[in-house]
Specification:
By secondary structure, this protein is mostly helical. The protein is built from three helices and three strands, in the order αααβββ. The chain has two domains: 79 residues, no CATH class; 42 residues, no CATH class. Strands 1-2-3 form a three-stranded antiparallel β-sheet, with no helix packed on it. The termini are far apart.
């Protein structure tokens, strides 16, 4: 079997990362997933994306392979974190907190005392519910 050229090695890695990204964007919406997780995880993901892009533009096969694997893991880490915070549907009793209309649930990726409601807005610790 012939050896792949550097350009082909880079392209196959980019294709693999793109596949994972498209799967996650199909599930969560384009550009939405990284906004559903805490600032620390989002920052680490963004740093990894920067390193991956720099490696691709530098045509550095070793770095592309390394950071491509990091991107695949990063997309899956975002997915797991967002799944833990997945907003709940409206509840039957008139929806959660006083006058809010939605059931609340603490999200482990948000600061203590913060809550999320199923429309995705972050509510401060002073809300009723």
């Amino acid at each position: 079997m012939p050896k792949l050229s550097d350009n082909n090695l880079i392209q196959t890695t980019v294709d693999g990362v793109d596949h994972v990204a498209v799967e996650q964007e199909s599930k969560w919406g384009v550009g939405r997933l990284r906004l559903l997780v805490n600032d620390d995880l989002r920052g680490r993901f963004d740093d990894q994306a920067r390193l991956f892009n720099e490696a691709v533009f530098a045509n550095d096969v070793k770095a592309v392979r390394e950071h491509g694997e990091g991107m695949r893991k990063g997309w899956l880490a975002l997915d797991r974190a967002a799944d833990r915070c997945r907003p709940r549907a409206p509840c039957a009793r008139g929806m959660g907190g006083v006058g809010t209309g939605w059931r609340h649930r603490h999200c482990p990726n948000q600061p203590r005392g913060a809550r999320r409601h199923s429309r995705g807005a972050r509510l401060g610790g002073m809300d009723a519910g």
